[in-house]
Amino acid sequence: MSLWTAQDAAAATAGQVASDWTATGVSIDTRTLQPGDLFVALKDVRDGHDFVAAALEKEAAAALVSRIPDGVSAARLLIVEDVLDGLVALGQAGRQRTRARVAAITGSVGKTSTKEMLRAALAGQGKCHAAEASYNNHWGVPLTLARMPADTDFAIIEIGMSNPGEIAPLSKLARPHVVMVTTVAAAHLAAFDSLAGIATEKASIMDGVAPDGVAILNADIETTDILQQHATTCGLRQVLFGEEGRDWTLRDVRLSDDITIISATGSGEDYLFKLNVSGRHFAMNAVGVLAMVDALGADPVTASLDIANWRPPPGRGTREIIVTDGAKQGETLDLMDDAFNANPTSLAAALEVVAAAVPVDGVGRIVKGRRVAILGDMLELGPDEVQMHRDMAANTHLHALQLIHCAGPLMHHLWQALPDDKRGVWAENAGDLAAKVSQLVDAGDVVLVKGSKGSKVSLVVDAIRKLGHRRPRQD
């Protein structure tokens, strides 16, 4: 199906084209480019113009460029003054031409997971469009909009930030009808003076919403007044979600190894539904998702059934079984891969999930199954980062674990604060832990691996997977 004709793309970007072509997609990476894509030659670590020839050889419909690369004909080029500005213009045009109801999501924790929950919840009620990954920054949001088919019914836009002033322009580009702030937590504090500063930045997602739009806000966080005041200033209808007396109220959560059972009320209805993953934090965001569905004009009852189809994205709490010895019955360990991001709030949520998990006895070297955490540094927490790491030793759920291994200079402070009977191995970096992972975990264990992406604790996840072969938990 046609996404952009040469004429439409040129009109949107004020660019120059030398021939007719039709693009069926938009790509910024030749490694994942599909035939028929419009290749956007962004400049990042490498200049995308260096890959235009390769993109055209892979049957890209055309390339969005600011100059003609050496050895490339202008016939299949869309030439603009600046490539990123051209992508933004293309995204703006993509947004303008659709009648889709648009939702935008931000928050310190849970943006991508909530986006995917909402996608699953809406999938049966119309044509739904959302990015396939965490495309939530100054190029990711316009790329998502540029990829949006004109006949989309529901669009879901994830908006993130790492510095002040980044969210509002992206919200104004997306022009959402409904926005949601999942939570405000100690993340990116290195770029902000306080939690209130983060809340103010998150609140700016409302700046692009029409005056008759809706803001779905977490009423249980300490900075909710900042969010609610901003919604009032923007003239938005506020829908609050939380645990007591809210418009959408989380009444009860029951966790097991694989399932979260949720009781909630909202919009005059009682809801009892499940997620096929364990986590109280997921439950809270799921209630917010039903509030979003309602505000978008879709059916939250149907959504509460369809949300069970959602699974966490890789690195954000996905669970899998690692078969360590296929010749022996039960020689497996349960791996929770949460290695994409970390702050005190998300770590506490992950520890609660592990604390509720049930290890398996009678297998492995140790025979007694354990709850094990392997933790990498939580980054960008600002001047109190050392204390924040040390304070995690007092977390109630952490005390239900039998063993905690740590990697990195910041996690050394948590490791030192642990009780002697729970203190495992500390290493200067995640690579050192990965090299000795066979000594850190055993069959029968439930193993959480969590840390900020920059801590490279994903190396430990990869090493655990190499201990055997993977199979999904539902098997």
From TrEMBL:
HAMAP family: MurF. It is found in: Cytoplasm. Pathway: Cell wall biogenesis; peptidoglycan biosynthesis. Keywords: ATP-binding, Cell cycle, Cell division, Cell shape, Cell wall biogenesis/degradation, Cytoplasm, Ligase, Nucleotide-binding, Peptidoglycan synthesis. The lineage of its organism: Bacteria, Pseudomonadati, Pseudomonadota, Alphaproteobacteria, Rhodobacterales. Belongs to the MurCDEF family. MurF subfamily. This is UDP-N-acetylmuramoyl-tripeptide--D-alanyl-D-alanine ligase. One of its GO terms (cellular component) is cytoplasm. The gene is murF. SUPFAM superfamilies: MurD-like peptide ligases, catalytic domain, MurD-like peptide ligases, peptide-binding domain, MurE/MurF N-terminal domain. ATP binds at G107, S108, V109, G110, K111, T112, S113. GO terms for biological process: cell division; cell wall organization; peptidoglycan biosynthetic process; regulation of cell shape. Residues 105-292 form the Mur ligase central domain. Pfam families: Mur_ligase_C (PF02875), Mur_ligase_M (PF08245). The keyword Protein transport does not apply. Involved in cell wall formation. Catalyzes the final step in the synthesis of UDP-N-acetylmuramoyl-pentapeptide, the precursor of murein. It comes from Yoonia rhodophyticola. Its EC number is 6.3.2.10. Residues 333-452 form the Mur ligase C-terminal domain. Its main location: cytoplasm.
